[in-house]
Amino acid sequence: MTFDAIVEFFHARTSSKYEEKGKDFRNVLRKMMKNNIYSIFYSYQMEAVLETHRYLQMEDRSKSNVKGGQRLEFDPLLIIAPTGSGKSGIIVMLPYVLQSRKVLILTPSVLISKQLERAFGINKKEESFFQVTGFSKAGGKAGLDNILETGIVLKHPHEIGNRLPNLVIVNAQKFGGRSRLSLQYNDEKMVDDVEEFFGQFDTLIVDEAHHYPAKTWVTIVEQFQKPAEGLQKQIIFITATPYRSVGGKHKPILKNQHQRITYQIRSRDVEGKTVRRLNFVEKTKVSNLAKDIKALLKQNAKREPRIPKHQAIVLVSRQDEADSIAVQLNDAMKSTKFAVSIVGNCKKEEIQKRMEDFKKGRYEVAVN
Predict the structure, then answer these.
(1) Is 241 in the same domain as 300?
(2) Is 361 inside any structural domain?
(3) Cβ neighbour number for residue 238 with a 10 Å cutoff
(4) What InterPro entries would the database entry show (predicted)?
(5) Cβ contact 74:222 at 8 Å
(6) Is 271 within a domain?
């Protein structure tokens, strides 16, 4: 009996920071919005996470898909967030607002995994979203320690057998193709380990969710949806483009998608904040475009000093234009580090490197 008590002591579940701080965090966001305080978080970031929580509460009350007080099957909810709307910040806030027990975040690439690793402050707390925005300053030196949850970016198959922290970020490809974690393999032990892995989490956040129709992504979501004792599961999709192209037609990524959207951030909501709309006629010289971008970046730096380095993205209509526009922008600014093309006719590894360099602030402009 004594031995059983000792085992129970070491395996007893402790609350996550998300569960502990969730209710208070929601109240803080509501007060910030009531008093029009938008110098820390953008209004649409707060609205997106609070509306998602409200939607979940409504579903729980309706009991439309709940049996015995526990949701057995849950369809994903969807937040539509365009480029420049602070999607990483929304992802960081969601586990707190939803009072998650244990969170799994699914990404399409190593690059995005690293970006979220920084936003959550997994390795460097001073790079976390809460620190960069200034939110944690009110808590003094202990502020970050009191709110940040421990986390890991899953890199190796053997890690799924470890006792994992309450935040896990993983590239979806780890569970597909020839990966050792593939759910398509006939290795029963490995499949059992993977199923046990998914059974730990109550919250799944899918970043860049327009990849979802791909087989690996569908398999992961289906695996996560399986009932787990004591867990009420919740799945949140986030993407700028919740459609896929099928036979030249755009189709929604979810069934009854219009009913699953908890919040949609529109492009006009972010214009004047993180995004500037510029309409250039064809005859406009690229040199003028470069000067306009430079001026806007300086203007934004004064307006939003909390962001270490302001950057811009130039969207072009054709892939083959990207390299040319990037070269012309650099020529106009007499620099090789002003702009970089993140598409074009080059190897995938080179594109990844360029994107990584842009994320690290080595370029001011990305042409996409």
Answers:
(1) no
(2) yes
(3) 25
(4) Helicase/UvrB_N, Helicase_ATP-bd, Helicase_Restrict-Modif_Enz, P-loop_NTPase
(5) no
(6) no
- Do 18 and 166 form a contact (C-beta atoms < 8 A)? yes
Do residues 174 and 189 touch, judged by C-beta distance below 8 A? no
Question: 169 and 153 in contact (C-beta within 8 Å)?
Answer: yes
Distance CA 240, CA 336 (A): 30
Last residue of one domain, picked from the residues 236, 266, 296:
266
Domain membership of residue 223 (yes or no) is yes
For 244-296, how does the pLDDT look when each residue is reduced to its tens digit (9 = 90+)? 777 777 888 888 888 889 999 987 777 666 554 545 444 357 778 888 888 88
Count how many domains the chain has: 2
pTM: 0.73
Residue 277: CB atoms within 10 Å = 9
Q: Quick count: other Cβ atoms within 10 Å of Cβ 10? A: 6
Residues 92 and 222 in one domain: yes
User: Under DSSP, is residue 326 helix (H, G, I), strand (E, B) or coil?
Assistant: helix
Q: Which pair of structure tokens corresponds to residue 23? A: 């209710």
Token pair 């976390």 in the structure block, residue: 128
Instruction: Retrieve residue 256's tokens.
Output: 């009854």
Residue type, 47: E
* Residue recorded with tokens 């780890």: 174
343 within some domain: yes
